[in-house]
Amino acid sequence: MKYRITLFLSAFSLLLQAQTPVYLDPSKGIEDRVEDALSRMTLAEKIDVIHAQSKFSSAGVKRLGFPDFWTDDGPHGVRPDVLWDEWEQAGQTNDSCVAFPALTCLAATWHPQLSSLYGRALGEEALYRGKGMILGPGVNIYRTPLGGRNFEYMGEDPYLTSRMVIPYVQGLQSCGVASCVKHYCLNNDEEYRHQVNVIISDRALHEIYLPGFEAAVKEGKAWGIMGAYNLYKDEHNCHNQYTLNKILKQDWGFDGVVVSDWGGAHDLDQAVRNGLDMEFGTWTDGLTMGATNAYDNYYLSKGYQKAILEGRYTTKELDEKVRRVLRLFFRTTMNRQRPYGFLCSEEHYVTARLVAGEGIVLLQNDRNVLPIQPKGKKILVVGENAIKMMTVGGGSSSLKAQHEISPLQGLQERLKASDCQIEFARGYVGDVGGSYNGVTTGQDLKDDRSPEELINEAVEKAKTADYVVIFGGLNKSDYQDCEGHDRKTMDLPYNQDKLITALASVNKQTIYVNISGNAVSMPWRKQVPAIVQGWFLGSEAGIGLADVLLGKTNPSGHLPFTWYENLSQVGAHSFGEAAFPGIWREGKKIIDEEYKEGIYVGYRWTDMKKLKPAFAFGHGLSYTTFKVSNLRSDFDETTDGNMTFKVDVTNTGDCTGADVVQLYISDVKCSVDRPVKELKAFRKVMLKPGETKTITLSTDKRALSFWDEATGGWKAEPGEFIAWAGDSSDHLTCKMKFTLK
Ligand code: BGC
């Protein structure tokens, strides 16, 4: 009897095994599952998974149980659904999200753990909304303050960007939602982004523009990369032999999918051979002319299938693409271990508030005008940006937020129980529109008064106010912080310089809060005692800002980019139009833009030229003060390039606060030109008044290396180096020498 039962059980389990194909068996390794699924797919099924079937989705494999694959923007929240094949709203009632602060703000926190929380929260929102991939984060380098999409990126420094992108990717992917790190690479212009061909030295490419992507791939283990619109070496970056096949896939060992930016593919042969895996958004003739199924006209669609059937290609490239797509499926939609999704949960709002609170940068605070002491006071709030919703606009990162608290509402909310009086004056009229792809803010900001009338009203009110808080800056309209165009100037738009100067001349307690993702010129900087960089902060903007202005949050954000006085201090703008915005070739199809400043971007440029920017990279004040001292190491020489430094940081003021300790390294003597110093480690640390903490900062050989163009690799030359520590690139209070043997 016992024997018979055992026999029955083994037969049953054999049957089960026979019935469970390898690709559906979670106990099997992912590569076995990929190969098994691949072997079962027809040519048509393979073709279907490598191109879009709607604006944001591609097909799964129905017959084999792979669901359709849904992507969505990114990177600051999960974008509301548009129609299957139109950019208008699908009209869902369940796609309002939490809008997280823009990535510039996240970078300004200098707090990698917050980046991880951010990624996780976004991943949970994406999961709830049924998305397998978020189109973000963006890690293009801030080359010029005119860059229309800088607000979606993480600043000018490759090291800071690298450290901040890794946890974002890991947090997001811990939900089984792929990140699609963008826009790879050299997408530093919005104007003519489809035509710009970047000419750049190998050193600048590897030292400045690639490390963020490299870190996301090698350390973050990103499952997706988005090819950029522009060209490099005369090939579009969505199918580029050099950047995709060679650097990304061969050198870095990337095993995920390369997704084209929407409409970034231009050629069948290049799309087949040069590293593209999934084609989205292509503007083929079919699409513009409205064929019944425009998606059949994609390069990686019916045309490719036909070419294979006619023997123009073997299935070698196709199978390689499909393998990557299947790997993506097993990591996301076919992953049974995915956690639960949440949308608009309290934890997500807390994350948004935390990031906002830690990213806001106190740039200037003469006479300790901030924090505001509200008791019995009258506060005049001025400016369109105090009331304008900023989560709508800016291009593809535009959101439909469940709620957005404006700066004025934030102050009103936080001061509602106090005896302080808040008044508002418009001050200027910027862009009163408020809609993107059919999402409208519902705000009526129309005001027909002339600039003079608006300024006069604000000035009259300011005369009797105890504080004037101006919320100005940019917005997310065209030619501001917005996809599709770059800014035309670094100046503030809409007469704001005049308004700010007028207000500061009648009220000594004037505070200017700049809302933007870019630096703006501030010719009135010396007349305005307090200046705060307030970014685009998403759903909880008003609360984040009010808490900093009122001292409930002690500011601890530090600039992720150099805040130049004006464009004459910017490397990219120092070589004429050849370096920015480039020169059209004959025929006007390609515009060559040569990054003549090379590796000298941001503080690397101002250091070399001995220029004093308005605010340096890494700068950020607090309501307390700090002392960074006593940089030391157990050894002052290294043979393998690894160094461990210790440094003390003391809170020398009278309230609790956090400082960002930054470590820079200079190569004293080298066979090639090196920047004066480069950021190589940092740590944010919270301290009570009087408290001292010793922190440890480690660096490795890469921190001492430059990209050697002769060998095509990283090289550290033996000799003397200097390590500097402090809390801003222009405030380095201690240093030590060491030697690489
Ligand atoms: C943008 C991408 C975005 C895509 C999909 C493109 O225009 O450049 O960043 O992810 O659209 O919306």
Task: Describe how the helices and strands are arranged.
Blueprint: H1 2-19, H2 30-40, H3 43-48, E1 57-58, E2 69-73, H4 103-109, H5 112-128, E3 133-135, H6 158-173, E4 178-184, E5 196-199, H7 202-209, H8 211-218, E6 224-227, E7 231-232, E8 235-236, H9 241-251, E9 257-260, H10 268-273, H11 285-288, H12 302-309, H13 316-331, H14 346-359, E10 361-365, E11 378-382, H15 407-414, E12 421-425, E13 435-436, E14 439-440, H16 451-463, E15 467-473, H17 496-506, E16 510-515, E17 530-533, H18 541-549, E18 583-584, E19 591-594, H19 603-609, E20 626-633, E21 637-638, E22 643-651, E23 657-667, E24 678-687, E25 692-699, E26 706-708, E27 713-715, E28 719-728, E29 731-740
Parallel strand pairs: 2-3, 3-4, 4-6, 5-7, 5-19, 6-9, 11-12, 11-15, 15-16, 16-17, 21-29
Antiparallel strand pairs: 1-2, 7-8, 10-17, 13-14, 18-19, 20-22, 22-25, 23-24, 23-28, 26-27, 28-29
Helix pairs in contact: 2-13, 4-14, 5-6, 5-14, 6-8, 14-18, 15-18, 16-17
The structure holds beta-D-glucopyranose.
